[in-house]
Write a structure and sequence with these properties.
Elements: H1 2-12, E1 16-21, H2 24-36, E2 40-45, H3 47-56, E3 61-64, H4 73-83, E4 88-93, H5 98-106, E5 111-114, H6 119-144, H7 150-158, E6 163-168, E7 173-176, H8 179-184, H9 188-191, H10 205-211, E8 222-230, E9 245-257, E10 266-276, H11 278-292, H12 302-319, E11 322-330, H13 333-340, H14 342-357, E12 365-370, E13 373-381, H15 384-399, E14 402-404, E15 407-409, E16 413-420, H16 427-442, E17 449-451, H17 454-475, E18 479-487, E19 494-505, E20 509-511, H18 517-523, H19 526-546, E21 553-557, H20 560-564, H21 568-578, E22 586-591, H22 592-596, H23 599-611, E23 615-621, H24 628-633, E24 638-641, H25 643-647, H26 656-668, E25 672-676, H27 681-689, E26 694-696, E27 704-705, H28 706-715
């Protein structure tokens, strides 16, 4: 009886909750939330502190982050399991991969809540965990008192979280505890005297006939057998069922009277315990769902798609039929993500999936491969026209405007189609062929569909060859920096240089940037290539300085992809420091698109560079946004007039107003104006009269190698190009 009083006392005490996270702000937020809801809370910043507190204090429940420096969440879980610490653990983590969830549950976690969490969901999970622990503690503690007396036994059984029953030797109920009514909706009086089979789900009757009325005892007795019990749908209980059957884990043992006839033990019935495993089943179903589905859209993932494609190929081979694989990519999706945010991008992907599903048959499979890429399996189709009809239907559906949070978004899709067996006979070749066809659509204007063909494959192979050669070019130092002079149009003095990359290809000779830079940006090789250009340029500037040449600022072209890198500013500043160069030796040229892409992040980085004395120029000005608002917000120093405007100055005077407008804008905003592509004296005179302070073009010189540029600067120490003549 003293043990019972102890248990009751324990239940009356408010449970203590330990919060473990390495983020102080997260700890503070969780602590305030839980205290506001009446919980007793302590916190530990990091896993090491958590282990100390677990050793010194008993807690009922823990909120645990997985990803922490030093002692991580998994080590804490293993410590709890190894040392047999009695505590419910709810993992609250941003790491939501299938493997992470599975590992946490395997290590003994009660539940898993994803960051950022919903406060209501978290509080409900905590309450469920505390209730579950209370029931478990109640069951465990009272279990020790079962041996004391029949009265205590009855108390424990009726308060057990499990169904406890006794059958006679005919399989009829002679005892059931109160838990039966809570879980199944049957009162004890309704079950007593009735055969156990009335509770068993019809599909489990055969197995239950061997284990529910168990005759064996000892180690051979039934344990860990999963069955389903019927639920009384007519009962008015507090439990809300979403199914007509309750999954249970059964433990049962035969009971014998040792004083039977002829001195033999007499079988008198079965004692059993059935545990509700609904939560465990749901967790297992969730884990299994996550293993084969995309959580954002609910669509099959790559693994499930490939499994269904494998079956469809096998069926097509047997029936000598056809199928199609379609590779779909949302056009301009990154622009939506960058400009409207990832939440809007996620909603767009969900609507995109819904619209495609509305265009499909029940037997078709749409899967999300990742990012904004989807694959579609069209089994049992007659010919290419069937696949083309589906593609046209999808394109038309996606073109319709999408309204999200009162914002109207227009998008489109690029689709590549591979037919079986013409475009491939395996999963890999079909998906690859459809992918190649899709990229062909992307490179030819988007918003269309294309069937795979050998001609497209040859073109794609050529692109892959360029990408492969660029990797070799970086490793084998095949790139070279050329320089083109920037000249003061009035004095004809060299006032600056622009660094331009060239590729000395071992087979193709000198390759111009227009032939490989787009591919470099697409594959993100522009990042290491850009780093190399910066390093090579700084090295050449130091060489000029060591030879006593006048100080000359050099412009370097920067891609939007480079700006997106987290270490973009650090790389530039560190490179200048390595060569002991101040920031005023360098000017960065960025296109208007590069400035506007992820605007807030870009302006912060450029302001940091500007603080180091580095100037910013807008390249090809006038061909992009041309907005006064962004010119005022960005730390811009120079506008470079695009060569397409300069080219038309002397041939079509009606277009010179564009150059005039740019000049007026630059003057009004107190910006330098540089014109590129100057090839005639008349163009030079016109730009000089507009107030252009720097010009560059073939009139003064084409881009030349570093050695030729150095020789030129040595010949003209004053920097003057006589008579504005072409050099080299």
């Amino acid at each position: 009886m003293s043990e019972i009083l102890t248990v009751v006392s324990e239940m009356k005490r408010k449970p203590k909750i330990l919060i473990v996270d390495d983020d102080a702000a997260m700890l503070s937020s969780l602590r305030m939330l839980l205290k506001a809801n009446g919980h007793v809370v302590e916190s530990a910043q990091g896993g090491e502190k958590a282990l100390e507190l677990l050793t010194a204090t008993d807690y009922e429940l823990m909120l645990l982050d997985l990803q922490m420096p030093g002692v991580g969440g998994r080590e804490v879980l293993r410590h709890i399991k190894t040392n047999g610490i009695d505590i419910k653990v709810i993992v609250v983590s941003g790491e939501t991969s299938f493997s992470a969830v599975k590992e946490a549950l395997t290590e003994g976690a009660y539940d898993f809540v994803r960051k950022p969490y919903d406060a209501g969901e978290l509080l409900t999970t905590i309450d469920n965990g505390l209730q579950s622990r209370e029931l478990e503690q109640q069951h465990k503690a009272l279990g020790h008192a079962l041996e004391e007396s029949e009265k205590l036994h009855r108390y424990i059984v009726n308060n057990s979280p499990d169904i406890v029953y006794v059958l006679d030797n005919e399989g009829c109920f002679t005892f059931v505890n109160d838990r039966t009514e809570n879980l199944l909706g049957y009162k004890r009086e309704e079950l007593l005297g009735r055969h156990f089979s009335m509770l068993i789900h019809e599909e489990d009757l055969i197995e239950a006939s061997y284990v529910f009325n168990e005759r064996r005892s000892g180690v051979r007795a039934c344990k860990d057998v999963e069955l389903r019990l019927n639920i009384n749908d007519e009962a008015k209980t507090v439990r809300y069922f979403d199914t007509h059957a309750l999954p249970i884990e059964l433990y049962s043992v035969g009971m014998y009277n040792p004083g039977g006839l002829d001195g033999k033990s007499e079988f008198i019935g079965t004692y059993g315990c059935a545990r509700d495993i609904t939560d465990r089943r749901r967790n297992e179903e969730l884990v299994n769902f996550q293993a084969f589905h995309d959580l954002l859209t609910g669509l099959p993932n790559r693994a499930l798609f490939e499994d269904r494609l494998k079956l469809a190929i096998a069926h097509a081979c047997r029936s000598r039929g056809h199928l199609a694989v379609m590779y779909l990519d949302v056009d301009r999706f990154k622009l939506v993500n960058d400009s409207l945010g990832h939440a809007m991008g996620d909603r767009l992907l969900q609507i995109f999936a819904e619209r495609i599903l509305d265009c499909l048959r029940a037997e078709d499979t749409l899967a999300r491969f990742g990012g904004d890429e989807f694959t579609l399996l069209l089994p049992q189709i007659s010919n290419k026209e069937d696949a083309a009809a589906v593609a046209r239907k999808i394109l038309e559906s996606i073109r319709a405007p999408i309204l999200i949070d009162n914002q109207e978004i227009f998008t489109s899709v690029s689709a590549g189609i591979a037919m079986f067996p013409q475009s491939g006979e395996t999963i890999e070749t079909l998906v690859k062929s459809a992918d190649i066809a899709m990229y062909h659509v992307k490179s030819n204007g988007k918003d269309s569909y294309q069937f795979f063909s050998e001609e497209i494959n040859d073109s794609h192979t050529c692109h892959l060859a360029v990408e492969r050669d660029m990797h070799k070019a970086i490793a084998q130092h095949q790139f070279e920096v050329f320089f083109q002079p920037k000249v003061n149009p009035t004095s004809c003095q060299v006032v600056g240089m622009e660094a331009l990359i060239r590729w000395n290809h071992p087979e193709k000779g000198l390759v111009m940037p227009s032939d490989f830079i787009p591919m470099a940006e697409q594959t993100k090789l522009i990042v290491p290539i850009g780093d190399w250009v910066l390093h090579a340029t700084c090295k050449e500037i130091c060489h000029w300085r060591e030879q006593g040449l006048p100080k000359i600022k050099v412009s370097i072209n920067i891609s939007a992809i480079q700006i997106e890198q987290e270490d973009f500013v650090k790389k530039i500043v560190n490179t200048l420091d390595d060569f002991k160069l101040s920031g005023d030796y360098i000017e960065l040229e960025i296109t208007e698109y590069g400035l506007m892409k992820n605007r807030e992040n870009t302006v912060q980085k450029l302001r940091k560079l500007s603080a180091h004395g580095i100037t910013i120029a807008i390249d090809d000005f006038g061909t992009g946004y041309s907005s006064l608002s962004y010119l005022q917000n960005f730390p811009v120093n120079t506008l470079k007039i695009d060569r397409s405007f300069v080219k038309n100055i002397e041939f079509d005077t009606t277009k010179t107003c564009i150059v005039n407008a740019i000049a007026s804008m630059a003057k009004g905003l107190n910006l330098h104006m540089v014109a590129e592509g100057v090839e005639t004296v008349s163009q030079l005179n016109y730009l000089t009269n507009l107030g252009c302070v720097e010009v560059q073009g073939f009139l003064f010189g084409k881009p030349q190698s570093a050695q030729v540029t150095f020789d030129l600067l040595c010949q003209r120490v004053g920097g003057e190009l006589e008579s504005c003549l072409y050099y080299g």
